[in-house]
Amino acid sequence: MLKSGITKRWILTTLLLITVILIGTAAIFTFSVREYYYDSVSSRLHSMGQSSSISTFFNGYLETTDSAFAGRAREYVYSFADYNTTWLWVYDGNDNAIVTSTGFPADEIECEDYAVAMSAPSGLGIGEGELSSGEKVMALTVLLPKKGERSSGAVRFITSLEEVNNRVKDIALLSGAFVLFAEVLVILSGLFFIRSIVKPVKSINSAARRVAKGDYTGKVEVSDRFDEITELSRSINYMTEELAKTDQLKNDFISTVSHELRTPLTAIKGWTETLISMDEGKNEMLQQGLKVIMFESDRLYSLVEDLLDFSRMENGRMSLRIQKIDILAELDEAVYVLRDRAKREGIDLFYSTPDYPAPADGDPDRVKQVFVNVIDNAIKYTPAGGKISIVASIEPERLRVTVSDTGCGIAESDLPHVKEKFYKANVSVKGSGIGLAVCEEIVSRHNGKLIIKSKENEGTTVEIVFPLLSASQTEGK
Fold this sequence. Notes:
It is a single chain. By secondary structure, the protein is α+β, with helices and mostly antiparallel strands. It folds into four domains: 1-48 and 162-198; 64-160, 2-Layer Sandwich (Beta-Lactamase), CATH 3.30.450; 228-314, Helix Hairpins (Orthogonal Bundle), CATH 1.10.287.130; 323-476, 2-Layer Sandwich (Heat Shock Protein 90), CATH 3.30.565. The chain has eleven helices and 13 strands. A six-stranded antiparallel beta sheet has the order 2-1-6-5-4-3. A five-stranded mixed beta sheet has the order 8-10-11-13-12. A two-stranded antiparallel ribbon has the order 7-9. The radius of gyration is 51 Å and the shape is rod-shaped.
């Protein structure tokens, strides 16, 4: 699933964007909650440290002795109601904490509230810091009215932020859990949705590839949903059915026309042979004309046979009459039939085979058809003065027949397609473009291989490999 292009794009775009949005939203929410709690603590400290009430309480004791000021400070501390949540420290004019709500000496605190209050016109400062123990706190300092240029003291309210921070952490964890849960839901729903698209698309792609190869039997599975994918699947199935009908109509037409052409061609060939024998060379022009008719009839007959073979192959009706044969004997016959033609066209033909037979199970007519077709192609594509080499060699449990020529060769771009139906690499040479496709089918059905190697303007080599019977199989037969 993850290798799919759609899934990759979804992960890299939609899922990534949703993840960023969820994490960003959780972070903003957590920060907002933290600010809300901190603002609440700050508001509470400000309500405690109203400077007017503090100044009123200490009024009349600012210019007294230190002991009287300290006594008044203890009264203020003892009357402080929020000592469970807030520490209260009172400083004298020398910046010494003389009274604390805890009853213990004031701890060292790193916080800027005192310094801010000293420099602020309002005499009030607030800040965040920590104690020497590392505990996070928020502190508010309220300066008492000055005595001339000298400080009269200050009151400091300190509250711990540990509980607030713990709540913020809990909320952050809950936000993270929510993000994770939402992410899982998005992934599951997204993958389910993508699978509902990718699976039928793969099925459609597979069906399209089968259709491209001429297989119209496969169908795309159509779901019960009413969406674009379902409509596309139905359209593909409809297209496949129509193509199958058209293809069947084409094959039936080729088969019918080929059979219909056979009868008049047979009559034309028969009467041509009769007229040639009756004339006995008396009329040279007539003899020449009759030979042309004979040659073109043979060529047309060969084309009709190719079309019939193609029709049988397409309809799955190409039958083989399997029997024990000597493949080299069939090769001998094919070479014998075409040797004179090669000589007439000025082509030097070299032929070499082993001195012992090559027993195999096969259809003798079809095997010979393969050899004739391949050698015929070599002659057609080799100019006068060229050479054709036909070499047969027996290897362990197989026969390899190599047909090499010095003809025009096949372009590299055409080579992968030369065994396709109706494909012609060189349109200037006569032929149907069916022969090699039929040869490939015949060799394949004999469990052999047809290998074509070629270089343009250098020549072509065709290797035909047939499996042979072993010695024990031959004796058993």
